Amino acid sequence: MKTTVLLLLSVAWTCSGRSSSNSANISTTFHFPTAHQTTDWIRYIHYFPNLQEVTACAWVTPYDLSYQSTLFSYAINGNFEEFTVFLDGPALLRVLVSQTGHDVIIPTLHENEKTHICFWFSQSLNQVGAQINGIKSNKVVYLGNNYIQGGGKLFFGQEQDSLGGSFDSQQSFSGEITDFTMWPRVLDSIEMAKIATTCEYPHDIILQPTIDKIEKNGDVTITYSEKCNALFNDS
Ligand SMILES: [Ca+2]
């Protein structure tokens, strides 16, 4: 009997495509309208956990790729670059883990064009990597020697040079970030491709900055859509 129920649930999840934890299949976009400022940000206000491994994915539409655009920065007490990711120009993703920087070369992004970006870190695999639009991936050796420690502060759109502040206008982000999601493991390339192409999200999500879990500042706006984001599905 229990098996039947589980099977039915499994079928229901498969049909709905998107993760059951993404309530009502709502897609969330953060809009950062202005480059070179320190006042526009989204802060995740729930607890950030310890992470020995992580994959994060989002749709990113950069408005200005002429400087370092910080997608997010995660700082802990005494280490303000615990986990920070920025676009350093159009074809380089810079991933800082435990104050150690990694340059992952990616296919060239274009301003005002939506691109699906997944990136991961694994202490056990000793790896930092990224996959773009579900197909092109690249990885480098993790050069640090620690995992990501929890309990810190996570900001989207600004780079923290102190815990929760000291933002640098030359490292702010302008553009859109849609459906940012984290998993506590390295997703395989097929899982990342399915997120980008058919909007199928693995269910073991560990962090999603939904409206009930964030605070916003400045000119950032948030919009919602019931339409699933996926490649080849643009209107
Ligand atoms: Ca900085």
In DSSP terms (H or I, runs of 4 or more residues), the helix count works out at: 2
Q: What is the CATH C-level name?
A: Mainly Beta
Rg value? 17 Å
Q: What integer is the average pLDDT? A: 89
Counted beta strands:
14
The amount of helix comes to: 10-25%
Shape: globular
Unreliable spans are 1-24
SS-derived structural category:
mainly beta
Present as ligands are: calcium ion
Compute the separation of the termini in Å: 43 Å
Strand count, sense and barrel status of the largest sheet are: 7 strands, antiparallel
**Strand-residue fraction?**
35-45%
In the residues, how many domains can be counted? 1
Present the secondary structure layout:
Elements: H1 2-16, E1 27-32, E2 41-44, E3 53-62, E4 68-76, E5 79-88, E6 92-97, E7 100-105, E8 115-122, E9 127-132, E10 136-141, E11 153-156, E12 175-183, H2 189-198, E13 214-217, E14 221-225
Antiparallel strand pairs: 1-12, 1-14, 2-11, 2-13, 3-8, 3-12, 4-5, 4-11, 5-6, 6-7, 8-9, 9-10
